[in-house]
Specification:
Structural class: mainly alpha
Distance between the termini: 129 Å
Number of strands: 0
Largest sheet: none
Strand content: under 5%
Number of helices: 7
Shape: globular
Length: 245
C-alpha cells in the first residue's frame, strides 16, 4: 500500500481585512500624517469623555431654560475640555509622534539583528518616550487651566516619573506581543489602541483622585465653618456671670 501523497505547500496569504480597516490602512499609507492626526483627535476626544463619565465627575452646570441638546451634552461630558483634547491630539500628539518615530525608523533603517532591535527599543524608551511624556503633561496642564510657566513645570515634574515608568513597562511588552502575534500591517491600529487604553486608564485615575481631593476639601471647609459658627461656652472672666433669681 502506497503512502498518501501530501498536497503541495500553499503560499501564505495575507489576512483578510474588514473593508473599513483596509480603507483605513490605505489612507494611512497614502496620507500618513493626516490619518494619524484624525485618529489621535478622535481617540483623545473619546478618552476624555469616557474618563469623565467613568470617574463620576458631576456634569457642567447649564441654565434651567437651556435647550435639551446642551443639557444632554453636558450630562455626558461632551464639553469644551473634550474639544480641547481633540485639538491636542490633532495638532500636537499626532505630528510629534509621527516625526519622532519617523526619525527613529530612519536611524535604524536597513539594520537587522537582535542587537539593533534592542537598541531601537532602548532609543524609543529613553529618547522618544520622555519627549512625548513631557509634551503630554505640559499640554494637560494648559488644558486644565494652568496660567503660568511655573504651573506647567510643576505639573510635568509631579507626573513625569509616574507616566514614564508605566510607559517603560507597557512599551516593551506591547512591542514583543506585536512582533509575535500581530501582522506588520496592523501594527499602527494595534499601538493606537494600546495607547488609547493606557491614556484612558490614566485619565480615569487622575479624575478620581481630583474628585476625591475636591470632596475632602469641601468636607474640611464645612467642618471649619461649623467649628467657627459653634457658640462659645466660655465666659469672659472679666465679666460677671448673670444673676439668677
Amino acid at each position: 500500500m502506497s503512502a498518501p501523497i501530501s498536497p503541495p505547500p500553499q503560499p501564505l496569504r495575507p489576512p483578510k481585512l474588514h473593508p473599513l480597516l483596509a480603507q483605513y490602512l490605505l489612507q494611512l499609507a497614502v496620507h500618513p500624517l493626516r490619518t494619524k492626526a484624525l485618529t489621535s483627535a478622535t481617540l483623545s476626544f473619546l478618552q476624555e469623555v469616557i474618563g469623565s463619565n467613568v470617574a463620576g465627575l458631576p456634569p457642567s452646570p447649564t441654565p434651567k431654560d437651556a435647550p435639551p441638546l446642551p443639557k444632554i451634552l453636558a450630562r455626558y461630558h461632551i464639553d469644551a475640555r473634550a474639544v480641547k483634547m481633540a485639538i491636542y491630539g490633532f495638532f500636537v500628539s499626532a505630528p510629534l509622534g509621527h516625526y519622532l518615530v519617523g526619525l527613529l525608523q530612519k536611524a535604524f533603517a536597513g539594520k537587522v539583528g537582535v542587537k539593533y532591535k534592542v537598541a531601537q527599543l532602548l532609543a524609543s524608551n529613553f529618547l522618544v518616550a520622555p519627549v512625548q511624556t513631557t509634551v503630554f503633561l505640559a499640554s494637560m496642564a494648559i488644558i486644565n487651566g494652568a496660567k503660568s510657566l511655573d504651573e506647567v513645570i510643576r505639573t510635568v515634574k509631579g507626573g513625569f516619573w509616574a507616566v514614564i515608568r508605566v510607559t517603560w513597562v507597557v512599551s516593551p511588552l506591547s512591542m514583543v506581543f506585536a512582533q509575535q502575534f500581530i501582522p506588520m500591517e496592523l501594527w499602527v491600529p494595534f499601538f493606537n489602541m494600546v495607547q488609547f487604553t493606557l491614556a484612558t486608564l490614566f485619565n480615569i485615575k487622575v479624575k478620581k483622585m481630583r474628585l476625591a481631593a475636591a470632596r475632602k476639601e469641601a468636607k474640611d471647609r464645612e467642618r471649619q465653618r461649623a467649628k467657627e459658627n459653634r457658640p462659645s461656652l466660655n465666659f469672659d472672666l472679666g465679666e460677671a456671670a448673670p444673676e439668677t433669681d
